[in-house]
Each structure stands twice: as structure tokens, then as C-alpha cells.
Design brief:
about 50% helix, two-stranded parallel ribbon, mainly alpha, 2 strands, single chain
Length: about 80
């Protein structure tokens, strides 16, 4: 996301938020791996990264949400 490269270093953002629709509009894949990369990039310049879960079924949405939660708490200690 070239906008991020230009704007995040300005230091005026507290966080970044995204959802499947925004990812699609930015031609970014809505995958766990890509969200992990985007979160790392966002958190290198901000304090928060927010993303919505996704899935075709409630079970898929739950699984993605749990994965994201676990990934976000791995480095806390």
C-alpha cells in the first residue's frame, strides 16, 4: 500500500483499520498471511491495527477471529 509508505511516517495516525471491502478496493488479498504483514507494517508506525474477521460461515469467521486474537497477544508479556 503505497499510501501507507507515504502517510504513516508522518506520525499523525494512532492506528490503522481495515475490513474485507477496503482490502478488495486496495487490491490486497483478504488472507491471514496478508493481514499479518499489514498489521506488522501498520504497527511499526502506529499503536493500533484493527481488522474485521471474514468467512463464508460463522465457523470460518470465528476461526479467523481467534487466529487474529492469538497473533495479537503472542508478543505480550
Amino acid at each position: 500500500m503505497s499510501e501507507w509508505d507515504e502517510l504513516l511516517p508522518l506520525g499523525v495516525f494512532i492506528g490503522v483499520t481495515s475490513n474485507p471491502t477496503l482490502l478488495e478496493r486496495a487490491n490486497e488479498p483478504c488472507t491471514v498471511a496478508n493481514l499479518h504483514e499489514l498489521a506488522a507494517k501498520a504497527l511499526s508506525a502506529t499503536e493500533e491495527f484493527m481488522c474485521q474477521t471474514w468467512g463464508a460461515t460463522p465457523e470460518e469467521m470465528y476461526d479467523h477471529g481467534v487466529w487474529r486474537y492469538r497473533a495479537s497477544t503472542e508478543n505480550e508479556s
